[in-house]
Design goal:
Strand content: 15-25%
Strand order of the largest sheet: 4-5-6-1-12-11
Number of strands: 14
Structural class: alpha+beta
Oligomer: single chain
Mean pLDDT: 75
Radius of gyration: 23 Å
Helix content: 25-40%
Distance between the termini: 53 Å
Order of helices and strands: HEHEEEHEEHHHHEHHEEHHHEEEEEH
Largest sheet: 6 strands, mixed
Low-confidence stretches: 150-155, 177-212, 214-259, 365-377
Length: 521
């Protein structure tokens, strides 16, 4: 429990230091479920039943019950402590989508809720039920602070709310049935992930376990990729330096260990160290060098408002069309984003000829063992063309740009930078946060991760839609998070409407490119 309750890790503290009223550092996951038993007899949302369900499912997850406590003097390190007054009613709440309850009204409500910072004096999560949809379905919005996204728990712990069996968890008054529950453990076997969910899993939980791990990996990658490419992966950085965040802090407290570590590395392979140093430096230079003209979105100060747009397309169609032309879904999405930004910038009267948008792209490495969960992500900066090209020419240029970024070893440069910054985070976090809020290197972050390939159910109600949202840094007023669910490719676009009043034009440009690509396929 020491890692769950005690001083914040270097990167937990850093992500809290990024928090501003205008840039809240929580991610979002937007879902829509069929009404089912969560619709009370009088037609209202049965909020009490939903709260009981969440309370039961989160009962064994300590991270969902801890809050941040500050010290008695300015230099005291903040600590994770158990919230002795935890009340699920403060976290599971109800909002009503205004008439007419259509898609536009729903997304407007989601944007308003995403703009509200979490209360840092409480456990850093919320789950909103959204009533008032015209078709009778119920919306869900989960908000989870970036500081909770490291380690084994990640933010995929939210997956324990769902089942792969529609009959699970639908007993009288919401009593639990553990069959098919999306709980923790190794794929296909019952069990538990240390420090997360107790092993209260039945013998038929294999499918639920696989969904749990898929959802956790997908959603935690979304969160990490939103900010980690700029400042580092909480888990990946610490692991590369000392094994985990606690070890990184210990190393910073005992600098003599750094010299001992260097001596060991030099003794093993000095030529290899030199080669890696050159490669890392070249990769970092490629990532941070200005290189190309900005699209015009960079350095726009982000205001507190948020607006959300969603683009959905059939995943298999996009995959097949991209593959036919020698590209991946990720590369097709990058080309679509470039097309959307080209339309957006051109609509502002800016010449888009020969201009490119600088997109930061997270690169996930996966995990060699079951214990290595959480964020393990570096980044590429890809210069994507935004104007003057047809669909296939644009896609070809994106494929080449991604390949060039990889060959430039940009991810190695990021790893080296993060390893160097890791020990400094407990004291230098605010300074680095200020730098991130004014960074000059990228225009937009785009993340794309796989989601659950099978339908999920909450209290027997099918989750029909699942869209990710990411936090925005101080001068990045536009972000795109992509998540697959069953056979749907879901792009969640979030923006500051003051800086990006033409969000609909951007979303339409993305959709138009994907449609053209599929038609050509």
């Amino acid at each position: 429990m020491d890692e769950l309750f005690g001083p914040l890790s270097a990167f937990d503290a850093f992500f809290l230091s990024l928090e501003r009223a205008r840039t809240p550092m929580h991610l979002g996951a937007v879902g829509i479920i069929e009404p089912g038993v969560l619709r009370a007899e009088d037609g209202s949302v049965d909020l009490a039943r939903l709260r009981r369900h969440v309370d039961r499912r989160f009962a064994g997850i300590p991270k969902m019950h801890r809050r941040v406590a500050t010290g008695f003097h300015p230099f005291a390190a903040p600590r994770w402590v158990l919230d002795q007054s935890f009340d699920v009613e403060r976290h599971v709440r109800l909002a009503t989508v205004p008439p007419p309850g259509d898609r536009e009204a729903f997304l407007r409500t989601v944007g308003e809720l995403m703009a509200r910072p979490l209360d840092v004096g409480q456990p850093l999560w919320e789950l909103w039920a959204l009533d008032g949809l015209a078709d009778g379905r119920i919306g869900l919005l989960e908000k989870l602070h970036h500081a909770l996204a490291d380690g084994l728990a990640g933010i995929g712990t939210a997956a324990v709310l769902f089942d792969v069996d529609p009959d699970a968890g639908t007993g009288a008054d919401g009593d639990e049935r553990v069959r098919g529950r999306a709980s923790a453990g190794a794929p296909g076997t019952p069990g538990e992930v240390p420090g997360e969910v107790p092993g209260e899993v039945g013998p038929d939980a294999g499918a639920g376990v696989r969904v749990y791990r898929t959802v956790r990996s997908a959603v935690s990658s979304v969160v990490g990729s939103a900010m980690i490419p700029l400042v580092g992966s909480a888990v990946g950085t610490a692991r590369s330096l000392a094994g985990d965040a606690r070890a990184a802090v210990e190393l910073a407290l005992h600098p003599q260990d750094i010299l001992a570590r260097v001596d060991r590395v030099l003794a093993v392979d000095a030529p290899e160290l030199a080669r890696r140093s050159v490669r890392d430096a070249a990769g970092l230079a490629g990532l941070l060098a200005p290189g190309v003209r900005s699209s015009g979105l960079v350095r726009a100060r982000t205001a507190p408002k948020r607006r959300v747009a969603v683009v959905t397309r059939q995943l298999s169609e996009v995959h097949d069309a991209a593959r036919l032309h020698g590209a991946t879904v990720n590369e097709a999405v990058l080309a679509a984003v470039g097309s959307g930004i080209g339309d957006l910038v051109a609509g502002r009267g800016i010449d888009v000829a020969d201009r490119r948008v600088l997109i930061l792209v997270p690169v996930g490495y996966g995990h060699e063992t079951q214990a290595e969960l959480g964020n393990n992500v570096a980044a590429l900066r890809v210069a994507v063309p935004i104007g003057g090209l047809d669909t296939l020419d644009r896609l070809d240029q994106v494929v080449d740009a991604v390949d060039a970024a990889r060959r430039a070893h940009q991810t190695d440069g990021v790893d080296a930078l993060l390893a160097a910054l890791g020990p400094l985070m407990p004291w230098g976090g605010p300074a680095v946060a200020a730098l991130i809020h004014h960074q000059p290197f990228v225009d937009v972050v785009v993340t794309n991760v796989p989601g659950p390939p099978v339908p999920l159910y909450l209290q027997g109600s099918r989750l029909t839609d699942l869209v990710p949202l990411m936090p925005l840094a101080g001068n990045l007023p536009l972000g795109v998070a992509v998540l697959s669910y069953v056979d749907t490719l879901n792009l969640g676009v979030i923006a500051d409407p003051d800086a990006v009043p033409d969000l609909d034009r951007f979303a339409a440009g993305i959709a138009g490119f994907l449609d053209e690509l599929v038609a050509l396929g």
